[in-house]
Design goal:
66% of the residues lie in helices and 0% in strands. Helix 6 packs antiparallel against helix 15. The radius of gyration is 20 Å and the shape is globular.
Length: 350
Amino acid sequence: MNNNGTNLATGFISSSVAVILFGSNFVPLKKYDTGDGMFLQWILCAAIWLVACVINLILHCPKFWPFAMVGGCIWATGNIAVVPIIKTIGLGLGILIWGSFNTLTGWASSRFGWFGMDAEEVSNSLLNYIGAVLSVVSAFVFLFIKSEVLGAASFTETTPLMTEHVINTTQESCSGPTYSWVDKLSKTQQRIVGCSLAVISGILYGCTFVPVIYIKDHSKINDSIYAGASQSDVDYVFAHFSGIFLTSTVYFLVYCVAMKNHPKLYPEAVLPGFLSGILWGIATFCSFIANHSLSPVISFPIITAGPGFIAALWGVFMFKEIKGLRNYLLMLFAFCIILTGMLCTAFSKL
């Protein structure tokens, strides 16, 4: 197999692994109460950074570029909303919406050279634009899919919520289960908040690789501060993941201050959260490999749109969040749209 064939095989295999893990990484957390998500965010990012340390040692500690950390900061900011999204509109619908906007943002920034990056040339501009439009259309179809999500009270039947007297014996010792701000919203408010947060998270996720691509593009300019920087995406994994962990730590400390040193901690979510972080870290490492082997214009639509298929399958068959013939038909229609868009975007480069 020639070098080009090897790159294609490596890229598509890495993309497939990333799609499966991105679509499944929140599954371990589904049956555990995670409160407002701030504690979970920090646990998740600690596991991600551990994966980065292992990868960095395997790669023999390539040069650390601090600017690559910015992408991690952007991702961690978008990830704060994950728990409220899952609690309001469900795992499947949440990933489908933020995945669509993730696809559009990542595609547009690479295609048009936003944020100082080099614009990606494609062989067929029409197919490329059709793929981007279909990604947006699919997101609006997902908005009409109604999901049934178990509230905090429902979790007590299988996994008891952590009560205040377990966490802090000095406050509300007899108040029973704790509820986050999400649980106090009406059904309509939850849907509006969940969909809005999913859109914002998707846009932020779509920008997460921008700093790495920027460094690679400017490494070819002799008078640039990034001159001579590595062209291999995986060499930036440790810096990217370090940005994630640093940002999440800052957010958690700010949260502790805002809560007057009484943060809501959920011990039962520690191990599931850690597992979720490891799955995400491996998936992101695979996406770095895919970006290098295929280029972002091809890999990005596949990796960002694909997890929606996996997540929705979990939502239908495991968690029973999506029910009814109407919802199934809408979901099938949305899948067809996003799959068509993904293929159009990919083939426009080939």
